[in-house]
Amino acid sequence: MEDSVLTSQRPKTALLLINTGSPEAPEAGAVREYLAEFLSDSRVIELPKWKWWPILHGIILRVRPAKSAKRYQGVWTEEGSPLIVHTKKTARKLQQRLGDGVRVVWAMRYGKPAVEDCVRRLVEKEGIERILVMPLFAQYAAQTSAACLDEVFETALSMRNVPALRTVREYHLEPDYIEALALHIERFWEKAGRPMDAGGRLLMSFHGIPARSTALGDVYEAQCHETAAALAARLNLRGNEWAVSFQSRFGRDEWLQPYTLPFVEKLAREGLPRIDVVCPGFAADCLETIEEIGDELRSAYLRANPNGVFHYIPALNESDEAVEAYAAIARRELSGWI
């Protein structure tokens, strides 16, 4: 009788947070395994296999792992990969915020913990009947949001006991998300001062994707600009006090522009005295924010303008404002389930 009571009290609903992923270690072998999975996804690289696989297996996976491992070593912490550490802490705080009626878990689209393993454990081991899937990408893109949902749906296709599924497609204009970003930036400025007061500017750098994605119907570019405009309005910024750019270009194809690095170098050469960079599309700090923005972009700006001031404003990570925003979104989407 006691066991049945305990079983009935277990939550039947889960919130699954998904982020991109990370190698298990900052070593060439682990990076190679991670890149092989990541760059083999047709959502990420939209080229026919006959064209892409010789490049991937013949060149990239032979050369890039060792170079990338050195980059990961530069951002790795005692707790592990920053992306995984922050995602884990976010899930833990969100569990506390939502209470015992919902089981909050997290997974990585590439690497571990794998989405399939998490979904199967929830259903087959914990008796979960309903799952709200929330990719941690505010702006919807086929390369990120859809890739996460693909893995959930593919897992469901092979299950006998398929849970009820709901998804958070995007939250780029959610008032709670915009407010979380604004509060996060304002708290940074309380300590560092506002760049505009020194004649500077706030740059919102989003992860880039191939430019042709927009022509194919992807809404990502438009949603990035919508997020930026809403955030600028909330911060009471004038048109010349903020800008949008796109980072992390991969390959030779044209990606969304302006590219963050040359854009910032141009501003530095023109004598912009201060620039603060925030990455609204990154839920957690990772290689692309810590190294690419915090280190490489900072160095490029200061080389072109030695007397300038550069600030990288960290991602939302597991901040209270982030957790509050995610909780508000989750509660709405979980309506009727809890």
TrEMBL record:
Asked whether the UniProt record includes Membrane among its keywords, one would answer no
Q: Name one GO cellular component term.
A: cytoplasm
Q: Mainly localized where?
A: cytoplasm
Q: In which pathway does it act?
A: Porphyrin-containing compound metabolism; protoheme biosynthesis; protoheme from protoporphyrin-IX: step 1/1
**UniProt GO BP:** heme biosynthetic process
State one molecular function term (GO). metal ion binding
Quote the record's binding site residues for Fe(2+).
207, 288
Give the SUPFAM superfamilies listed for this entry. Answer: Chelatase
EC number, UniProt record: 4.98.1.1
Localization (cell):
Cytoplasm
- Which Pfam families does this UniProt record tie to the protein? Ferrochelatase
Q: Which reaction does it catalyse?
A: heme b + 2 H(+) = protoporphyrin IX + Fe(2+); Fe-coproporphyrin III + 2 H(+) = coproporphyrin III + Fe(2+)
Q: Does the keyword Cytoplasm apply?
A: yes
Query: InterPro entries from the entry?
Result: Ferrochelatase (IPR001015), Ferrochelatase_AS (IPR019772), Ferrochelatase_C (IPR033644), Ferrochelatase_N (IPR033659)
Protein keywords: Cytoplasm, Heme biosynthesis, Iron, Lyase, Metal-binding, Porphyrin biosynthesis
As for family, the record states: Belongs to the ferrochelatase family.
**Function, as annotated:** Catalyzes the ferrous insertion into protoporphyrin IX.
- The protein in question is named Ferrochelatase
Organism annotation: Sutterella seckii
Q: Which gene encodes it?
A: hemH
